[in-house]
Amino acid sequence: MQHRPINTNELALSELLDRALNKGVVVWGDATISVAGVDLIYVGLKVLLASVDTADRLRNSVQAKATADT
Amino acid sequence: MMSYVYAVTDRPDEPLPQQLGFGDEALAQVVFRDIGAVVSAHGGPHVPGAVDEVWRHEQVVESLMSAHAVVPMRFGTLLASCDEVESMLRRGYPHFVDDIARVRDHVEIGIRFLTLLKPDAALSTSASAHSHLPASDGIAQPAMAPGTAFLRTKLLREHERRDRRHAELELVRKTYRVLAKHAAASKLDDDSVDAPTLSAAFLVHRGGFASFRQLVARLADVDRDLAFLCTGPWPAYSFVSTHLSKLTQGTGS
Amino acid sequence: MSIPIDGPQSGAAKVLHAPEDQAILDRFAGALGETRRELPQRIATDSDKVERDLARLVLSVIELLRQLLEKQATRRVESGVLSAEEIERLGLTLMKLEARMDELKTAFGLQDQELRLDLGPLRDLVNELQC
Questions:
Q1: Residue B117: strand, helix, or coil
Q2: Counting CB atoms within 10 angstroms of each CB, which of B64, B179, C17, C119 has the fewest?
């Protein structure tokens, strides 16, 4: 939590980002158009994709274990 | 050289404003029929994501608004070449024309709502459904195994959040509907259960901007249950359909 | 009629109405602060920061998983298909998972707000998983 007085500049910036960034990152054909640091985010997304898979597997194995023990 | 696209406008014959783009590059236009994309040359496939750049993007878009109807592009809309830009205009032409007509002489005003509800206010219905949890009325509850208690608490919290969001939405909707009557178009984001604020966007005619602003102030003064954060005037980011991720999908029809 | 522009120096002109109460303003800023973190940062060159950023990324993913698992579990409890033993086992495991996550967060000095991921195009996929 912040305790210093909030700058209205910051509020305005956040509102601008909310508008200007929404759906703003684009993949165009083979070239990855990126905002600086977005490579990191795409790596993140790839990792996330793997993790969503893992989440699925984990969920299924929790379920399988739960039913196997009945 | 790549092309960074700031906006698509009508009246591409109008001279561009003196405004400079990223890296103080001059602005240029890529024209297709009666619409034009406002661009500047860009060195590499990366756009620095710093605060100054975002405001610069915004400055460029806004500088166009005195002479054009402006369809703003999202920050980071970077295309490989001018040919690609023209291709984008050609493929999206009917959508751009639609958007231009919608936004002409209009600006966007955003309002974020924060409900000032007391925590108990929303919970009267959910509390009774969870009588197995420790009650505040002092009635002893049977001991519950730890794992089970853990999950039941999570469940209760989830229900509380849902009920609270429902109550908040109802509160906001009343004000939202009043404001929506004074706008050409409006949107209320009621998607996320967890976000602490609710946000709305209004497309308002330039001429009605001042009175809309006054209406917001009046409503904010009167409302004891809601806090308002109102910002604008913005280019109509929330009311255009032509963001690049949409235009790159599908065939070139 | 032109739109007044206040450039990089001052966006304050964009605020048309704000609450006067500082505490309420803080709450708005806190909520909006989450958007700020999604603005891509420059790649860190300081090795400590790289490690911390990496930890943040990895823990964000793990945290997302953990929350997905919890949501699945509560959904299952609600639907009444689990036996008392199953519920207890599930609950204990998730309890340990939560405790472990707290340890990791403390070890890396990370707060909950720092571990939220903007899922972007994956949001729908994840929402589907939660049903």
A1: coil
A2: C119
**Is B85 found in the same domain as B20?**
yes
Cβ <8 Å between B116 and C24: yes
Assess if residue B252 is contained within a domain: no
Total domains in chain B come to 2
Listed in sequence order, the DSSP H helices in B45-136 are 51-63, 82-91, 93-103, 124-128
Q: What's the Cα-to-Cα distance from C124 to each of A38, B86, C43, rounded to whole Å?
A: 21, 32, 28
Domain span holding position B200: 108-234
Contact B226, B116 (CB under 8 A): yes
Considering only residues C58 and C51, tell me which one the structure prediction assigns the higher pLDDT. Answer: C58
Chain A contact set for C39 (CB, 8 A): 17, 21
Specify which residues A31 forms β-bridges with: A28
Q: Write the ipTM.
A: 0.79
Judge whether C67 is closer than 8 Å to chain A, CB to CB: no
Domain segments of chain A: what residues?
Answer: 8-68
- pTM for the full predicted model: 0.72
Residues B67-120: tens digit of each pLDDT: 999 999 988 788 888 998 999 899 899 999 999 999 999 999 999 999 887 665
